Amino acid sequence: MAAALDRRRVAITGMGILGALGDTFEDVLSRMREGETGIGPIGRFPTARLHSGIGAELRTDKAATFFTEAQRQKYDLCAQYAIMAADQALRDSGLPRGPAKGTRMGAALGTCNGGILSLEAQWTVTELDDERTGRYPFYQQGDDVADYFRLNGPVTTIHTACAASGNAIGYAYDMIRWGYADTMLAGGSDPLSHAVYAGFNVLRALNPAPASPFASHFGLSLGEGAAFVVLEPLERALERGATIYAELCGYGLSNDAYHETAPDPEGRGIGTAAAMALRHSGVSPSQIEYINAHGTGTQANDQAEIKGLRSVFGERLDGIPLSSSKAYFGHALGAAAVIELTTSLYAIRHGLLPATLHYDEPRAGCEGLNIIANDMAEGKPRFIMNNNSAFGGHNSSIVAKTSLADDEAAVVSAYNPKRRIGIVGIGAVIGSSVRQGSVSDPIRRADQDAAELPKAGACTFSLKAFDPSRYERRMNRLCQFSIGAVRTAIADAGWADGGQALDGPPERAIGFICGTSRGSTDSIGKFLNSVFMNGPEFASSIYFPYTVINSIAGKTAEKLALGGFSSSLSSGGAEGIMAAAYACGSIRSGVHDRFLIAAGEERSGLSEQIDRAKGLTESRFRPLEGSVCLALTDLDVALQGGQPVMAELQGFGMAYGEGALAAAIDGALTEAGLLPEQVEGVLLDGAGRPGEWEAQLQIVRARLAGPDILIESVNERYGYGESVGSMLALEAAAEWVKPGAMRHVLAIGISVNGNAAAAVIGAVDKQSDEAEEIA
Amino acid sequence: MKNWSTISLEEIKETVKQKLLIERLELEDVTAADIDDDMPLFGEGLGLDSVEAFEIMVGLEVVFGVMVEGIAADQLKEHLYNASSIAKFIEASVREQAELRPAAGSL
Fold first, then answer.
1. CATH no. for residue B13?
2. For residue A769, pLDDT beyond 60
3. Is the pLDDT of residue A751 over 80?
4. Would you kindly state where each structural domain of chain A is located, as residue ranges?
5. Residues of A at the B interface (Cβ-Cβ below 8 Å)?
6. Beta A352-353 vs A377-378: how paired, if at all?
7. By CB distance 3.0 to 4.6 Å, which of A189, A551, A599, B30 could disulfide with A515?
8. What is chain B's Cα-based Rg?
9. How high is the ipTM of this complex?
10. How many domains does chain B have?
11. CATH class given for the domain over A2-401
12. Is A350 known to be catalytic?
């Protein structure tokens, strides 16, 4: 009998690695014991004209023997690394290679730069070919992992830069806890990129000598690689006698809301994430016996990170063994968190703790710490913490328990599946207008006739005109759309306090989950163009921060002071519904009472070429750009406070692969406790390539079979823009149930690669079932 | 590239404002006339940040052929303080380079 959802615990039962110190944990640990670094001269590209010529590259080309020639053509190197690490993790877990009959296996892949190497290989941003360009988008990397292992559960690519794999592990843990998956592959991957190296070079962040975190010399060393874990319910792992590397106790996410590249010097963001991780784990600071820090080695990071940790651990921090693994593996960006967590767990199984290599003496702000310097220390910590921070201000912190011995009174974070979640605010930037409370009824500017309002398509919104205080120079259009939509949703929800009360009770803060398939392709194009046309030594520093696509969420958080739980993800077209599922589960888990979910896209020269590569130029719908944001909160709390609630989010289904659409619909109905015939309307969002719409319509009709069911395409009305469409479907569903004529509407987002997510949106009952039962 | 060693400080200053600051940093709604010679560029004044400082450093090489490698950070900070200090730094650097370079025709 599976554990009830409100007390489901999650174990790590398989691990795989691919890094500069090796591609098995045995090799990696033996090199760590020797105090060996993976950082050495770069062989992949010329570095003579750059400030540093070193990095942590893989030693062997394992992919050459692992994949067939056709597979190497099909996958970007980011996906190849991820697949190899995930394959190792699955073998290690002893589970079959893919979902067992009747079970759901999903994946969460963290990456900083996605398939950037597929653009780099072309060394142009204007004359791109379809084959390689099609491998580039961020979501493609997660989807490739899912295709390779024929996964059927929730699949998403988390792109919160250098915190991405920490967030991916947390997301996967939630998918199991909340009952959306039986097994999850979670990890991160980033191959070494010439353009990214050039970007760090121009920011003067690279160290010409191997990185020495917390020590006297500043600067980081870039690395590459991938690592994956297999997550499953602890109960099942125990039943089948699996190796349990650790129990995942909880995690925390945050945003610095400070700057696109520089950390908050006070370390408030990492402090918020670490405190959240402890709170959800039910673990006190005094129980943490090892911290694997982000510790990049840069002047800005290390000092700020220690300040943030001191705010959580106080003087106790000085006694906790602490190290950064960046001097072993380099900074592997999106793979950093998972490489550091898995190697720590493996070392701890052997009674050892990772060291900080190249350590001489502490730098200012990092004195008095218990740094494990140069040689691994002996240790068997019961609870450990793993921290990571990123461009875009995102932070992640994970608390894991390494031993189940003495397992009395394990605290499981409170997940209450009965808590009802309502939509209390809508903001959108679509076409030429800002829309508050309703997308179908735009706010008209005094100088504008209704006839002039374009229904959708190109977005002419200017944040500078709308709210100059939140605008800054060169702000890309997607950031402007996002800030405009989120600010409007906050206003619509009447959240005048802005949710910045991070020092107060967590229920007062606001969580923020952002979806975008592509980020600001205009900024990415400008940066890559500077590298390709002018040379890597003349890379554009001002556009580099926007090559990571969590920069949109980060800039929005900065301008609107959203410092709470913070995530950003890609799926290629189902982001809005996935963000809603993530936010609802987080509210039910007690993260924060209020969440903002936003999704947006921006058109550009580069995005047109991606459209062509994905066949979207053949779509029956015209292209759409803009951003849509919904404000969500505990429905009963809102009603008690006299706040109007538009609609209730009642159930979600997320599925991948063959039959994904039907499975997503079934999942959403099951969670909502509905029969198919109870659904009165469907809002569908899909790419609309030839034959696609008809096929999807047929599946939806076959599944629901109501004679009077109304099925509408949001794309017919607004156009198609990967992530923004699925949020529009949710929003439109809320508008359908709001007057009360319809009770239950299904919103469905289907990605370019067939990833599907569905949500049941219901009319608001004034009383919860529980309250009715009592009455 | 122009031979900057023969050009007046005034002209260097104007080029700094137009090419190095306004065009390179894509400053919107700012003209060269808005940038006083002595106006601080970072934090206050023009309000540039550290990421933009790196863009200026790349621009010094691209526009004027002036390399900033090997210059200590605090010294560089003084050179980049305002349009006037940047122009003086460029003037001194290009003169130094011109003196080191053998005169044309003498090879």
1. 1.10.1200.10
2. no
3. yes
4. 2-401, 421-762
5. 51, 202-204, 259-262, 473-474, 534, 538-542, 544-545
6. antiparallel
7. A599
8. 14
9. 0.91
10. 1
11. alpha beta
12. no
